[in-house]
Amino acid sequence: MNVKKIPLPVMAAVLLWIKTYVVYKASFQIKIESLMQELILFINPLSFLLFAFGLAFYFTGEKSRNRYVLFTSLLLGIVLYANVVFYRFFTDFITLPVLFQTSNFSDLGDSALTEIHWYDGAYFIDILLLIIFFKQKRRTSDFVPVKKMHRRAYFLVAAALLFFNIGLAETERPQLLTRTFDREMLVKNLGTYHYHIYDIFLQSKSSAQRAMADGSELVDIDNYVSANYVKPDPDFFGMAKDKNVILVTLESLQSFVIQNDVYGEEITPFLNDLIGDSYYFDQFYHQTGQGKTSDSEFLVENSLYPLSRGSVFFTHAGNELDSLAQNLSEQGYYTSAMHANNKSFWNRDVMYQSIGYDRFYSAADYHITPDNSVGWGMKDIHFFEQSVDLMKEMPKPFYTKMITLTNHHPFRLDEEDQYISEYDSKSGTLNRYFQTVRYMDEAVKIFFQKLKDEGLYDDSIIILYGDHYGISENHNEAMAQYLGEDVTPYVSTQLQRVPLIVHIPGVTDKGNGEVLSKVSGQIDLKPTILHLLGVDTKNSIQFGEDLFSEEHNDFVVLRDGRFILKDYVYADHTCYAKETRESTDPAFCDPFKEKARKELEYSDKIIYGDLLRFYESVEYINK
Ligand code: GP9
Ligand code: MN
């Protein structure tokens, strides 16, 4: 084949394609776990590049076409290189909100400079090759504009490639775009250029919605929230004043495993004991959507609902918030989050700045080895042990939110960590789930012991809750076998219960443990915790209610619109009576439909319009 015959745009696309792949391998640490993932990584830059350079075929003059090709190569080369430099410092890919977050800007400028090296010129070698190539070409061949038919065929190939790429990515990572988990995942599956386009799209969408909003919308919301405020119980208000707060997010833990067994073996022996020494809420629901763990964090920190699609951590990471962490900072607490995973997962590194933690202890702060890892990363026992060592060094009082990891789909464990036997059903996921839950239970037990050994226990309150379901509806058949009943919409809704355990040393462990069957959800945690610490929330925009308040209402809305009352469950457009577990007269649920809809709508409005930035002025209007 005569290289000189290759059209310049195609040549440029191929050069940049190869360069991008080389840069992926050399400058980013993208985890590749299979040959298929490697293949996706390899092909993912190509379709975008074919499109970008293909536009050159619309130029009729040789000079303008060459200029366009060169300019595009340079521009994309700069984008790629900027990511390399950014990655060297932040081990992350650039996002628009990061670039435009003014507080980051000066830091970014400084750190960027220190990460640029003289040998980085090598990143632009393809441009040099391109110039040589087109100089040669100009000398030897005449310029011919491209025929329409060829142009069409070219774009058809590019489009086919794009769909092939998306298809492969979808099989590797279902719901990649709607869940937007992790930037590494997006780059790995769709390529760095598509990732930037997607990021621009997300950003412009939320900027538009934000630009249209003004504080007046907040007045109604504020009125609604104030009317629904419930007074704290004086016996509980300030009960844990100035204690350290340790909030433990237990990955994928659902309530149905509590006080339950597999072939006679207890699944959560430690938690079962702990419940006796704690306030245990057995009618507490997760309210997460596609943002899973990140949604649970959002709910707990802000007492707002997450969004119905995507994760707020990604879509609205720059919003003004009035978080639990900020409230506790104001009370002199040192605030942090602890999670032994890549810090960019769920965009935490960016969102945590808006939440306002003083510190995020992520994978880089833990000693992670192949021996102490399984599945998604560091095993919980090691995570808890190392975390307590980190806690010892924290200024007191502190508030820290810990997130466990081992009890995560696909629920794999090393043999030595399997304390109970597998369940036997058609679903491997459910079969293994009980074992990983049992492992997590052991980890929590070791954690409590270590807190005691290190003298942290007495001055702390420990609150544990499940973040979301672990077993999805795909496993209904196996679930029905375990539960001994069909998973109807009613049962499925009841399965959305996650444990909430509030353990207050010196109080609940002195025989004051209690099972509280209040119908409630993650949204209630922020006012509950603040009130326990003696912090007033009367002026906060929050949809939750203090769980210890006498006035707490038995009502919880799930993110998909289902809701649960004291005696009824509204699911699948049907009103179910808890007593009979059968559908009943819709009139029992009807009066609450409007309230459920309104809460979700108001909360969405706050997030889309970034309305809390107007809060001070609304307070003023209302006074
Ligand atoms: C990852 C962990 C799991 O860091 O929080 O996220 P999930 O898939 O459960 O949302
Ligand atoms: Mn989770």
TrEMBL record:
<keyword id="KW-1133">Transmembrane helix</keyword>
<dbReference type="InterPro" id="IPR050448">
    <property type="entry name" value="OpgB/LTA_synthase_biosynth"/>
</dbReference>
<keyword id="KW-1003">Cell membrane</keyword>
<feature type="domain" description="Sulfatase N-terminal">
    <location>
        <begin position="243"/>
        <end position="535"/>
    </location>
</feature>
<keyword id="KW-0812">Transmembrane</keyword>
<dbReference type="Pfam" id="PF00884">
    <property type="entry name" value="Sulfatase"/>
</dbReference>
<dbReference type="InterPro" id="IPR012160">
    <property type="entry name" value="LtaS-like"/>
</dbReference>
<protein>
    <submittedName>
        <fullName>LTA synthase family protein</fullName>
        <ecNumber>2.7.8.-</ecNumber>
    </submittedName>
</protein>
<dbReference type="InterPro" id="IPR017850">
    <property type="entry name" value="Alkaline_phosphatase_core_sf"/>
</dbReference>
<dbReference type="GO" id="GO:0016740">
    <property type="term" value="F:transferase activity"/>
</dbReference>
<feature type="transmembrane region" description="Helical">
    <location>
        <begin position="39"/>
        <end position="61"/>
    </location>
</feature>
<dbReference type="InterPro" id="IPR000917">
    <property type="entry name" value="Sulfatase_N"/>
</dbReference>
<feature type="transmembrane region" description="Helical">
    <location>
        <begin position="116"/>
        <end position="133"/>
    </location>
</feature>
<keyword id="KW-0472">Membrane</keyword>
<feature type="transmembrane region" description="Helical">
    <location>
        <begin position="7"/>
        <end position="27"/>
    </location>
</feature>
<feature type="transmembrane region" description="Helical">
    <location>
        <begin position="153"/>
        <end position="169"/>
    </location>
</feature>
<keyword id="KW-0808">Transferase</keyword>
<comment type="similarity">
    <text>Belongs to the LTA synthase family.</text>
</comment>
<feature type="transmembrane region" description="Helical">
    <location>
        <begin position="68"/>
        <end position="90"/>
    </location>
</feature>
